Amino acid sequence: MIALPAVLRAATFAAMAAIAASQPAAADDMLQRDKLTGDWGGVRTELQNQGFDITLDYIAETMGAVSGGVEDGFVYQGRLQLSLDVDLDKLMSWEGAFFHVTGYQIQRTGGGIGARSGALSDPSSTEAHPSTRLFTLWLQQSLFDDALSIRAGQLAADDEFMISPTAANLLNSTFGFADVLALNLPNGGPEYPLATPGIRVQVNPTPELSLLAAVFSGDPAGDSCSGNPQLCNSYGTTFSFSGGSFWIGEAQYAINQGDQATGLPGVYKLGIWYQDASFADERFGTDAAGNKVSLASGTAVAPENHEGNGGIYGLVDQTLWRSDDKSQTLNGFLRLGASPADRNPISFYVDGGLGVTGLIPTRDQDKLTFGVAYAQISQDAAHLDKDTRRLDDPSFPVRDEEIVLEVNYLAQLTPAVTLQPDIQYIIHPGGSVPDPSDPNGGTIDDALVLGVRATLTF
């Protein structure tokens, strides 16, 4: 039997080939298109006039751990993304209403680069279990000339919260939804590739200031998931209401955003989050008599639990310099976050970096980006390792931190095609944890990861 994803891929590429074949064009015209399949003989423009905007993108990526990590070798990751946006004002005169849906068809060969590197921070922001899945599905209503908007449905927090535009050019997942959230929330929280039911409210008191608040279902994997959350919610249609509620709020202040602004643009954000679920202690549990003991003692029958979890974060994304004609820019970003050490594996996080646009003359759309991320293992988790060393294994390593360094160059080959070679060096993958392939009990060596990503817009 042919697998469903294979059938969908074949049907999708056959449809794209048919569309492209239906509108012959010169090679020069193809190179100038914003979308490889063009205007579909005028059909795409007509659909947009009616309120329908269809986006089809394909990301093809190969990455390999070439030294260090857990296992050498390259993997391939492919992701076909289909999105439909509907302007309900154009379609049915519903003023200020907007509908959105995104789905993925994900392929992977050679296992995962995250597992090969041994890192907490997955080197690929697109890596996911092979599947055909729904991602986001929501309806948004804007009111009072866009001073207020309400979005409800299947939402992802990493679509709008804790996002740095400059950091988003990097491929490591931590530069998107940072580790201080992604690794501390149950099963990763509502982020790619698992969204959850939620409601988001945005208020814009001034053109520069935006206030966002959202509540999401706490666990995207669904009730009683004990394995891979992407397998528990294999098609993105679990619509989980388990894991309590995840609340997040963010204040955004954006300056010099207009085309006519004379100053350098920048974005400043401050956020806070809270989840009203039960979280296991990183170090202590209780024994059969109810006494508090280390989880490393061998007598603990269950970890201690804490009600609720939370954290704070902030970020700056600022243009530091640009040429008079705005064809070249230098941008910088900095993000910080902190969470309680007793119930989170990551208690402190900071990342930062620089991005240069138009480094090469005549290539105004190319981007060179460098970033470094530091994730500190919580002191309670480190103390558990010290307990293990004291009570069981004197050579057991003590976790400390994981550091990611990344540089890549995004080349805009055509308006519809980009190519992005990437280099990452990961210090203390996993935070200095035992190497499962080392019989002598050594830690995972620092990992060098090389990769290249191509993005095609159809």
What do you see in this structure?
- The chain has a 16-stranded antiparallel barrel with strand order 1-2-3-4-5-6-7-8-9-11-12-13-14-15-16-17.
- The chain has a single domain (4-457), classed as Porin, CATH 2.40.160.
- The protein has helices at 4-21, 27-32, 43-50, 88-92, 113-117, 179-182, 229-232, 379-391, and strands spanning 52-69, 73-87, 97-109, 131-143, 148-155, 196-203, 209-217, 245-255, 266-286, 292-294, 302-322, 329-338, 346-357, 367-377, 401-414, 417-427, 445-457.
- The chain is mainly β and 458 residues long.
- The protein is built from eight helices and 17 strands.
- Strand 15 (401-414) and strand 16 form a beta hairpin.
Question: In short, what is this structure?
Answer:
With 458 residues, this protein is mostly beta strands. It contains eight helices and 17 strands.
